[in-house]
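Re: that chain you flagged

S.,

Sorry for the slow reply, it's been a week of failed gels. I finally had a moment to sit down with the sequence you sent. For the record, here it is as I used it:
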Amino acid sequence: TAPSWPGIRRAHPQPPTVPGAHVTSLVAVTGAAEEQGLATRAEHRALWVHRPVGEAASPAPPMAALERHAFAEGDGFVWIAAEAGVAKAPRTHVLGYAAIRPNWLRASGY
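Prediction finished late last night. Pasting the structure tokens below so you have them in one place:
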């Protein structure tokens, strides 16, 4: 099913206010029609993961997107939104990057 955009917008955190900080969001949706703007004051890069409804419970599509993503140098905030059972694997993967502060990572299940 399509993600609950009001819930995602409420869960989308504002990153810590640090000059030059980068924000990466990873959001799983069924296709481009579900992509929506996520307003933030930081330099933001959205990773939209398109996967069919039948793969909504699989962490493979979000993990593939993360493995292709090169995180920016310097301070950065990462926000992950996916089905509740899927968000854990990307969170664990991102925590493996020494440059990512654990308190600058938010993983939300919907």
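What I noticed first: Strands lie at 22-29, 43-50, 76-82, 105-109.

Talk soon,
D.
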